[in-house]
Amino acid sequence: MRKRLLIAACVLAGITSTAQASVIPVLSSVTEEGGLFRFSYEGTLSGDQGFLEGSRLIIFDFAGFAGGVMTPSPNIIASTELVSSVYPDPGGVLPVPGYPDDPNILNLVFTWVGPPFQASGGPFPDLEFAGLSALSTYSGVKLTGYSARAVTNNGTATGLPAYNVGEVGAPTVPEPRTWAMMLVGFMAVGHVLRQRGTRRGRRVQTV
């Protein structure tokens, strides 16, 4: 229940913090898959934006990345990087205020590698998208930053980069307190099993 509420909060944050933006991703679900957890995303591409080769969406600090990436199109490839290039570096995205890029946690990157898509002649109707996902070793959800770079498709700004930043849900490393509770639990189980083994040994010796 708590996880559902947090995902709902992440969805709301992704929508409300980025009105009139280019790409708005939201975390739609977290599902268990083979002992791992699949984080699935959907969202909106604004009608006044499009994609050129190299347009990208970065979800920062995707903790516990375990592969299994899926995209809805062969024109979208996924990759990871520890530190993402930010503006004004060529091809960079905008940094996300309040969410510094942790150089120790992989960023999840989706890059457009196909022909121009709605890159001119706009604006078009807003486009809903889904099917972006990746696996993590963690099931917990946190708010992290995302940053996207698209292209303006209408007016005098046609062809110029369009940037967008906001908040989105992503996997989180368990807090130290959680790890401590798990460790205590494992130790308790180990102690019980050890005691049972000792008792069985004593019984055998008695007989």
From TrEMBL:
Signal peptide: 1-21
Alphabetical keyword list: Signal
Entry keyword Signal: yes
Protein name: PEP-CTERM protein-sorting domain-containing protein
Source species: Edaphosphingomonas haloaromaticamans
